Amino acid sequence: MFDAVTAARQPRSALNWLRKGAGASLLADVAAGRLAISHDALDTHPHRRAADYLRHMLTAAGALPPRDEELARTGQWLTETLQAIGPAADRRLVQAYATWQVMRRLRASAAGTARPRTPTAHARNNIRAAASFLTWLRSRGITLATCGQADLDQWLDSGPSACLARDFLAWAASRRHCQQLTIHAPPRPTGPAISQDQRWALAARLLHDTTLEPTDRVAGCLLLLYGQPLSRIAAMTTSQVTRHDDQTLIQLGRHDVPVPGQLADAALQLIKDGRSYRGVGSPPATTWLFPGHLPGRPITPDTLGQRLRALGIYAQTGRRAALLDLAAQLPAAVLADLLGLHHNTAARWMHQAGGDWTRYAAELARHPHQP
User: Which of 60, 20, 13, 67 is nearest to 40 (CA)?
Assistant: First the structure.
């Protein structure tokens, strides 16, 4: 960790962290034995933000074992949330639901994927909805056991977020805490898309304007040309970019996808030089294509979105335009394999784009020997 701090690209940033960011005092406590090098000790430190940053430095340097921070913070948030639920019966019910349904599902998801961070926002919203629904029932003198469909329909009229109680009610019914109640799944949002002319104009600027940061050029092209979401772009590794027969390839799904020469140059420059700014204590070598501010961590999707918005690129409308264009040209199975989409998702995009896979099948029948 000492080597990483002294090798900082911006020495002034390292000095500011030591002098003003509580870095020196934290390190002094560690050296004197007043602060143990453990996740538990850092969790309870009064300077939470400074301790969290030190945690990332220690983890990146190998002094602390890595852990899923989002999962850990959700567990801490759950403890505080349960303490705020007044009636003991409601608290026990929410605790059982959160422990055996929500948190268990989150841990299984975290163990089964190699993502740098586990999405927890939906899980927290489900727990909040369960607590809110029980509070709403109690305010009307209704118990969960006696709640009927008419009561639930009234609750659903209270706002769009009320449908988040759907998961809780399905769990409660399966354990006979209530009768079977119905909350229909909300329709998938579609939203607008930029025009294809706008999309190609933005992509052309990213491809040809070498004054732009390689981070923005590569991330923006992955969004506009290949329809990748910011969450997946942010978590990309350098191993996904390869060279073969003088061609640069990027692995987004099951197969490698060729990239234009200008994008290839920007991606290789990004791997060689890295981002212009990394957090203090970041290791000199990283596997992340887009290293983030925190040592050893990738850039966050929110930060990536802010950078692209500064260039007039908006993730939802840009990605939707890309997928509509690609889905109109490729069959769903090919689209899924190339871009890493679920086959049902790819089929839905093809349907929205008005694509017809039979055209592809007919083309194969006419030219069976073409790869």
Answer: 67
Same domain, 234 and 338: yes
* Per-residue pLDDT tens listing for the chain (371 residues): 888 888 887 888 888 888 876 788 899 999 999 999 999 999 999 888 889 999 999 998 899 998 888 999 999 999 999 999 989 999 999 999 999 999 999 998 887 666 677 888 999 999 999 999 999 999 999 999 999 999 999 998 888 778 889 999 999 999 999 999 998 877 666 678 899 999 999 999 999 999 999 999 999 999 999 999 999 999 999 999 998 888 899 999 888 888 988 999 999 999 988 766 677 888 878 889 999 888 888 999 999 999 999 999 999 999 999 999 988 888 888 888 888 877 877 787 777 777 554 444 444 444 444 43
Evaluate whether residue 187 is within a structural domain.
Answer: no
pTM: 0.79
Strands 256-258 and 241-244: unpaired
Residue/partner pairs of 208-213 with CB below 8 Å, 24 or more apart: 208/262, 212/311, 213/275, 213/276, 213/307
Q: Report if residue 219 sits inside a domain.
A: yes
Q: Which two tokens stand for residue 179?
A: 């009768």
Handedness of CA 186, 191, 196, 201 (dihedral sign): negative
Kindly give, in sequence order, each residue whose CB lies less than 8 Å from that of residue 105, ignoring residues fewer than 6 positions away.
Answer: 123
Token pair 């909805």: residue: 129
Instruction: Please list, in sequence order, all residues whose beta carbon lies within 8 angstroms of the beta carbon of residue 311, skipping any fewer than 6 positions away.
Output: 202, 205, 206, 212, 216, 220
Shared domain for 96 and 157, answered yes or no, is yes
Residue 242 and residue 326 share a domain: yes
Pair 134, 93: CB distance under 8 Å:
yes
Same domain, 250 and 320: yes
